[in-house]
Design a protein that fits this description.
By secondary structure, this protein is of the alpha/beta class. The chain is built from nine helices and ten strands. The chain has a domain of 71 residues. 37% of the residues lie in helices and 25% in strands. The chain is globular, with a radius of gyration of 18 Å.
């Protein structure tokens, strides 16, 4: 689904990425890990076309996104969705209108069908349809995340990007959200890429992950493989929650 080759990024004299190489496979839940300032969020933004690719290549759906036209960027971006850390719901719109807005913007479907789809997505993310008329200010943190997820899924993307999806949630809500992501991956045949520092997510939800450190990829593999690595830094990442920066 995604192939990163020889990626190099710097801001003035500060090198952020140096020769990054890795792939993300179809139907995989893939994690991007690393300490504060390691370039996790920059990498995510480059994948979703919010940050320029300076050197190297990022291929998504076999398209080199560094060298595509504006029209191609518009088309390819419709195949993925992004769930930002705090949901980014429109505070002036109720839940159903927040979820419907992408359908209204990108399709010519009639309003009754648009709202039917939006109600289906509400149920898909485990919420009661009674929340449809509530405003974001009336929702708990966990409910906001689920509404934002419903909006992200409304155009039936093939790729789902998540930025710290369990940040700010209590442990029970965080684990329930992880389970939801795993279920949706199977139901919708999604490929999921997430930036995370949640150790339970890393251990129980991710199929594979990379750890970014000192501009490079310190580790690339799964949790069991990481535990076998005789590396002090990797062991710290897997044992110390405070090691991870947001």
């Amino acid at each position: 689904m995604i192939k990163i080759k020889n990626l190099y990024t710097s801001f003035e004299q500060n090198i952020v990425h140096e020769n990054l190489n890795f792939t993300i496979n179809k139907n995989e839940i893939f994690g991007i890990l690393g300490g504060s300032g390691s370039g996790k969020s920059t990498l995510l933004r480059q994948m979703i076309l919010l940050e320029p690719i300076q050197k190297g290549n990022i291929k998504i759906f076999s398209k080199d996104i560094k060298n595509i036209s504006l029209k191609e960027k518009d088309e390819i971006s419709k195949k993925w969705a992004v769930l930002f850390q705090f949901g980014a719901l429109f505070s002036s719109m109720n839940v159903i209108d927040n979820i419907s807005i992408l359908l209204k913007e990108h399709t010519t479907l009639p309003n009754d069908l648009i709202y039917d789809i939006a109600y289906t997505k509400i149920k898909m993310v485990g919420l009661d349809i009674k929340v449809a008329k509530l405003m974001p200010s009336q929702l708990s943190g966990g409910m906001k995340k689920r509404v934002a997820l419903a909006r992200a899924l409304v155009l039936d993307p093939k790729l789902l990007f998540l930025d710290e999806p369990t940040s700010g949630l209590d442990p029970a809500s965080a684990r329930a959200f992880d389970e939801l992501i795993s279920e949706l991956r199977e139901i919708l045949d999604l490929s999921v890429i997430m930036v995370t520092h949640d150790l339970d997510t890393i251990k129980n939800t991710l199929d594979k992950f990379i750890i970014l450190d000192n501009n490079k990829i310190l580790f690339n593999g799964n949790f069991d493989e990481a535990k076998k690595e005789n590396n002090i830094l990797i062991n710290k990442f897997l044992k110390n929650k405070d090691t991870f920066g947001k």
